[in-house]
Every structure is written in C-alpha cells, then in structure tokens.
Amino acid sequence: MKIAELTYHSDVILHKPARDSSNVRRKLAAIKMEIKDLKKLDSIAGQLGKRNFDEVEKDYHHFITKVFGSTTVLKSTISTTQEYAAREQLKREKEWEATSQLLKWIVVAPDSIPLFTETNRDLKYKPLVIQEEKFTFGLAYPDSLHAAGYFYTITPSRQPELKVNFSVDKANFKKSNFRLFKGLSTSDGSGNAAVADNSKEPFNYDFVIKDLAGKKIDFREFQGKVVFLNLWATWCGPCRTEMPAIQQLYDGVDKEKIAFVMLSLDKDGYANRVAAFVKSKDFSFPVYMPSGYLAEQLQVPSIPTTFVIAKDGTIAMKEIGMKNYNTPKFKKYLNGLVAR
Q1: 313: confidence class by pLDDT, cuts 50, 70, 90
Q2: Neighbouring-strand partners of residue 165
Q3: Helix count (H) and strand count (E) of the chain?
Q4: Which of 55-64, 134-143, 292-301 is predicted least confidently?
Q5: Where exactly are the structural domains of the chain?
Q6: Residue 201: pLDDT over 80
Q7: pLDDT higher than threshold 60 for residue 255
Q8: Coil/strand/helix, residue 202
Q9: 287-300 burial by CB neighbour count: b if 16+ within 10 A, else e?
Q10: What is the CB neighbour count within 10 angstroms for residue 248?
Q11: Three-class SS state of 216
Q12: Would you identify the CATH topology of the domain 208-339?
C-alpha cells in the first residue's frame, strides 16, 4: 500500500513539467496516469481493509507493533488511505474533465473556435472542415446577416500558429443557409486557389465488438441505421456524469431506427466490472466492449467521445467530451437523420 502511495506522489512530482506545459495532450496523459495510480492505491487499501487483522495479528505481531503500534492504528491507517485515494481520484477526474474540454476549442482571444460540428448550439464560429490536429476552416457569423471566412491551424496548445481571416460573399453565405454549404473556395490575384470540402467522412464498419456476455457482433450489422456510438470507461468521471442523460435519450427514441452502442474501453477481461457498474446504475442501453482491433476513427485522444453515424454510413457528428444529449433539439436532429 505504501509503495502504491509513494508511486502516486512520485508521479505527481514528475508530471509537474507536463502540468506547466501548454500542451493539452501532455496534461491529459499525466492526469490519466495519476488516476491509474490512485485506482491501484484504492484497490490495495480496499483489499487490506477486508482482512481480519485480529486473527492474523499473531503472525505479524512484530511488524504491526514495530510499524503501527497496534492493529487499531493499522486499520485506521488503511481506512484513511482509502478515503484519501477516493478524494484524490475525484479531484483528478474533475481535472481530466476540465482539461479534456480544452481539446474542443482553439483560443483566439477574445474568441474560442470550436473543433467539433455544432448540432444544438448557436455558435458564432461554424467549421466546414476540421482536419484533426492540423487545421480548421469555416465561417464566422457575428450576427445573422454578416459572415467572414477563417482558417486556423490546430496546435497542441490550442493557440494557432497561423490565423487567416478573409471576406466572403455575404449575400450567399447567410447564416440561414449554412446547412446547405458543402465547401468553400477562395483565390488570390495570381489565381492560386484553396478549397475546403465539407463532404461527410465515411465511417469504417470493419471491426468486431462483443456484448458483456462475450457474444461477438460484427459492426457491419449496424449499417443502414442511425447509430449513436459512445466511447466511455468505468474509470472516466465525465463519462459516468453524462450517462444518465444518455439513458433518458435512449428511453425516448425509436430503438428500431436508432441503434445505441455504448462501447466501454475498460481493459479486456473487465467485463464483469463493467456489467456490475451498469447494473448498479440501472442502465438499460446496450453496452459492448472491443473484440480486438478497433477502427482508426475510434482511436480518440480522450473520452467520452460520441459519434453519430448516418444511415448512408457517413459520420454525421463527432463530439469530444461530456455533453447533455437528452435535449429536444438533439432528439430532433437524430429523428431528422432517420427521416433522410
């Protein structure tokens, strides 16, 4: 137990440069390792707390007396350590949640530019193209009548190294027409052109998942349906926070037309732990785990991450981070995809 506690404190010290860095992914990696340390500390303390030290005291009498003085002090130390691990884990999970939100935005003071396709939020900046960790290209609407184009590079610090703003034809690029746009092109006086294509990315169905009983399902079985695919894990605080709203969403949609895939990224072999968590929360949505290789599109930097896949097999939406999906606007969005 003490070794696990020292490991955690050592990692906190070693991770200080990462915490002070502007690189968001470095910060997330450090927090994730510390959460892993705390889960191990909590597990060890929990196992020790179940032991009957009054029975085994005669075998470890010298050690207990020398180090703790009495079994009462030993049991108190174990209990205190487990409480400490739980408190620290909660703090780190909240820190993970706040830090992971930074991945979703580029900061260009005084504005923040979204790195996701907005579905139920009226945002000033509306991306047409997002090339992950490369650049974003879209339209900015200070109001409903005026528009301007933008191009920003995406950096680990989420502060762009290259920022370009340009004029567009305001008559044609009204905010009310945005959903009709499939791309954007511009050219300079020399005839050099840049084109942004807003065609939807096709989803790769070529992988296998399994339910919590171990039955394998080819993901291609979901082709032709609207799919709500959520990547989560039992150790992820933000994932657990958003799940009640997902359950409410699941209860209120046509399950014959919209498939829900709650894909747990817990370690292989942890199906019993996942099942116990789902049962303890009375969740009834379908829960799965990977069965080997996952499509590259699902190798995401942080969770929760949610995909909505349209019936034509394209990615209609990708949302990184926690969100409330149980809203009338999001339900209307899903039903709109069903009706297409």
Answers
A1: very high
A2: 150
A3: 9, 15
A4: 55-64
A5: 2-102, 105-197, 208-339
A6: no
A7: yes
A8: strand
A9: bbbbbeebeebbeb
A10: 12
A11: strand
A12: Glutaredoxin (3.40.30)
